[in-house]
């Protein structure tokens, strides 16, 4: 039986530890581990490299562990991987040209890959091959030799003729000679003083070569033919392949991956085994007499067709997220050109679903390969979470709203009904959906076509009795965002005009005649440089936080202010003694409010900011450089208010952060102090006290009753820097935390042990 265990087992098995600042126990990844790029073997274990992390599979126990940016690595988008079991050293290459070196003493990030003067191209690492304490790194500029002991590059050969660089697709080292597969031939050179001089390299065999590997013998291939030998003389495997995606050489075998079939040969070229996998494979290995295929969509697949991988979504691509407790719905679409043109993923992914126990991907999207899907939003019915609606924003047949039913017994969705929104697919493109407090379903439409032939932005409402959607114009502009419903009003950001539309539907969603619309314009205080509004959220003070493509604005008392020419305000913070507007001229993708009234704000290419309730203090700032975020453009943020989990959605994967604010109320919850005890040699940060009331009076005293710290905490948690009233670190000992809520009707106590 397959079991998922913590990363600590992976550490023990490979002798790895990590201590970098970008990951911590507060983070977890929701990455896909389906697309296996490389498979390596160590004693009793298989290591598989995927797009956003590696996973480790124990052949006897079936235990699986994973290593990603959430718990040790420094990047996502892995493009190359190799591992030396003798030294327990792994080397990961990334799309951006950086590398992670994994050794028994830690994980080292390598960013100084040598680039030739004048090379401004793609820095993607194509292949890594370890031989002893050296690794041959193939990239689009050529080949480098990396010293694994010194963790530095020793020599590099730039494959350049004139001003043109030739990529080294794969390269290996054998008897101090490097063999590099390129589109113009198999290039070779001994590692010596003339190694960096490309004109000294020899073309061993002309042709378009794609792959090579070495383990005692060398094998290399074109798209259709495999050669093998000692380095001076080569034989050809007497078989023509369809399209070779990888070759792997072990001490006794040559493994050829040819589209959906794996072939195993002896090192003498004799056919020994083969397996038809039934789906596209990237690579394979032959371990313990069994074939393990690295598939594009299903993780590892063994000879018995068993799928081996950590549980995760079907793919890393994500755009929008809906959260209900442990259940998650993920939309994968996108828009471009000022949030108007359709920009679907070529995989036609649709949406994924996490049912609280495992990820589910509907066979509907696997079977309907002719339909172009660009799913911008997916929402479950609050009255029946097994009923799901999603919008398909495509400009092709299939455009419209879909209703599906989830059957837990079969772990699949079935299509209940398709609601096309237009026969002319340039118009009436559905953008997003939202249920109100009475379970009425609303949606927005980009380019709603009017009877006179003109078009505008549109609103649609689901008529449950008639089982159809009715539409109405919103005016102002033809492009809209997902609707947000607050206090019986629909708020619609308009990303291509400096305005936001509020619609009062008078609690009669199917009767458009009594609706009233209230536009919020630039004269109300939207940034004068803005070209559109992107997002809106509402906090516990009934303030509307409005994100534009040129900054952030706040409308106080949002439930009533919109009626009387409201004035929007910016947030002014002090930077180096100079007051300036927070997020000025920045595009705000998303705003989310937690139960402590703190704000999570996603800034385009700027990561995520965690703000105090009034926004005047930046509590945390997460970026891809200091956190496990896969990219600095986060398209959606969702907070699970019961658990405090914060989900960050990007096109390169989803990560989750465990915040300290959970279910804040006027009374105390489950008060927790961590770390506790605080041992200075192990931890030098602040002590966190969580589970507090919305407003908590805190007094911390020593065993003699002397006051050492006091504060008023808001938002359900407090951080103590372990300093006393005079600003000095407290002495070793036990300290008592005495807490009361705002009106003194609830009390709580805790102890903190400090060891300096």
TrEMBL record:
UniProt-listed InterPro entries: PorZ_N (IPR048954), Secre_tail (IPR026444), WD40/YVTN_repeat-like_dom_sf (IPR015943)
Domain PorZ N-terminal beta-propeller span(s) in chain numbering: 48-202
Coiled coil ranges: none
Span of the signal peptide: none
Keywords: Signal
Protein name: T9SS C-terminal target domain-containing protein
Organism this protein belongs to: Chryseobacterium lacus
